[in-house]
Each structure stands twice: as structure tokens, then as C-alpha cells.
Design goal:
By secondary structure, this protein is an alpha+beta fold. It folds into two domains: 129 residues, Rossmann fold; 132 residues, Sandwich (Tumour Suppressor Smad4). Helix content is 18%, strand content 38%. It starts with a strand and ends in a 6-residue tail after the last helix.
């Protein structure tokens, strides 16, 4: 490893100290270190700032919670750079390492010649297009939602080009298995193992009898067309992308790119899920 880029939460009190610790580790190991300008400025670490894309790093170190992980993946723009998440939140689904094990984890990553030192957890992402033009990728979900408070929006869902049904709802979520524990879950969608490849079509507060999630094969394509005079908004992983008008079509399909997370030891997904919901052993 020759380079590390750090993406950090701007408001976590421990993010600055950990960024400085990571920088010192890199100096000690002759590894190039930098941070995006906005992150370095937010943490008053201007000397670490660089315009260099984080996609050029050998490792991206994400200091924060799941939101910081999502921002790290977004900044990578599909580049297959592994991401190591350091948990500065309460309980993250995507972060791997606790703050006091940062240096140890970097040592293990560098010494990865051992078969069980670490592994990559590759997560499915979505390519999202509007009217045939790709506008971004999503690790958790793409959401077409109402633009006006107090009103539903009318949306036609197509699967593989064939009309499925019209939804009168607050919105429609197209989620990945990773995103099944995010917005889709709050809309009563199922929890899906992140090892699976699928797309989940979940309505948000539908004003109709059919309110179930559709779990679709990754070979299928989902299209959502805005129908009627009420506008909608497109949101990818919590970030607004733009407004949609009558006749606009949002298409979602599995991306060839994956989000790649560094994992140490056994898979913790189900244990995190158990802890998140306070589930007992028996």
C-alpha cells in the first residue's frame, strides 16, 4: 500500500484526532496521506487537504458512521478502492473498526499476505438513469418521492419494460440488499442479507390496498414514471439529485461497480442486526 485517503465526519469530536493518528501512521510507514478539501477544512487540518480524487488511493479510510461510508462510496464514483470504516456513530451496519483499533487495523491491512488477515465484502450498487441519462449510483437506495407536502404522487412502475401498476403513494424506493436495513425497512420492507443480489421495490405510505415490497432478480430492470400534474424528487442515498415532472422516467439496474469494504474476522452483519433491534438469543 502506498496511499491512503481519509473521508471524515465533519461534526464528530473524535474525527480530528483519528485523522491525525492515521496521518502519523502513514508518515511512519512511508504512505501518502490526504483528505478531500472540505473534510480537511471542516476539521481544521488544512495541511492534509488535496484536490486529488480519493479514487486514486489504495485504501479509503472512512471516519464516521454509515452516512460517512455512503459519502465515501459516492466520492469513489464506482472505483474499486477498498473502504475501511471506523465507527464513530452509535451502531453502524457498514463500519467495521472501533476507534481504539485503528492502527492495529491498518497494520493488518498492510500485512494482508496472510490468508485470514482481511477480506473484501463486495456490495451490490444501483445505476440510476433519468430519461436514459445516467445520473448516479446508489449503495442503499434510489427514491422517487413526492415534492409537495400533504399530497401523494402518482407513479407507474414497470418491470423489464412491462407495466406493473400505478402507485398513489408518498414515493417508491428501489433498494439494494444493503439498503434493506435503511429507508426500505422503515417502510416495512424485508431485511435481505447483503450477500444476496436483488432489487427491492418498496412503496412509501401507499394509498392503495397493495402495499407489499417486490423482491426482484438483479437481471431485471425497474422503471418508475411520474404520471400526472404533481412533481416528484429523485434522491440517491439520501442526497437530492433533481426534480421530476410528468412523463419523466427513472430507471434502476444493478451496477457493474461494487462497493468494497475491508472486513476482519467473521461476518458481523447478523450480529449488528440483532443488536440494533435488541433481539435475545432465545
Amino acid at each position: 500500500m502506498t496511499s491512503v485517503a481519509v473521508v471524515a465526519h465533519h461534526e464528530r469530536s473524535t474525527a480530528r484526532a483519528l485523522a491525525e493518528q492515521a496521518a502519523q501512521w502513514c508518515i511512519d510507514h512511508d504512505v501518502t496521506f490526504w483528505m478531500p478539501v472540505e473534510d480537511a477544512q471542516a476539521l481544521d487540518l488544512g495541511g492534509c487537504a488535496s484536490e486529488r480524487p480519493i479514487a486514486e488511493a489504495d485504501l479509503v479510510l472512512s471516519l464516521g458512521g454509515d452516512g460517512t461510508i455512503l459519502r465515501s462510496v459516492r466520492l469513489l464514483e464506482g472505483a474499486p478502492v477498498p473502504v475501511l470504516g471506523v465507527n464513530l456513530g452509535s451502531l453502524g451496519y457498514l463500519t467495521q473498526v472501533e476507534p481504539d483499533r485503528l492502527a492495529e487495523s491498518l497494520d493488518r491491512f498492510v500485512g494482508g499476505s496472510e490468508p485470514d488477515a482481511w477480506r473484501l465484502d463486495r456490495r451490490m450498487m444501483l445505476d440510476v438513469a433519468v430519461n436514459g441519462v445516467v445520473v448516479g449510483r446508489a449503495l442503499n437506495e434510489a427514491v422517487v418521492e413526492k415534492a409537495e407536502s400533504g399530497h401523494t404522487v402518482r407513479l407507474l412502475a414497470r418491470i423489464d419494460g412491462e407495466p406493473f401498476t400505478y402507485y398513489a403513494a408518498d414515493g417508491l424506493i428501489v433498494a439494494t440488499p444493503t439498503g434493506s436495513t435503511a429507508y426500505s425497512l422503515s417502510a416495512r420492507g424485508p431485511v435481505v442479507s447483503p450477500r444476496h443480489r436483488a432489487m427491492l421495490l418498496t412503496p412509501v405510505s401507499p394509498h392503495m390496498l397493495f402495499d407489499r415490497t417486490l423482491v426482484l432478480d438483479p437481471s431485471e430492470t425497474i422503471e418508475i414514471e411520474v404520471s400526472g400534474h404533481r412533481s416528484a424528487e429523485l434522491v440517491l442515498d439520501g442526497q437530492p439529485v433533481g426534480s421530476l415532472a410528468d412523463g419523466d422516467v427513472v430507471a434502476c439496474s444493478p451496477s457493474e461497480s461494487t462497493a468494497n469494504f475491508v472486513r476482519f474476522g467473521d461476518e458481523r452483519y447478523h450480529q449488528i442486526l440483532k443488536a440494533k433491534f435488541g433481539l435475545a438469543d432465545r
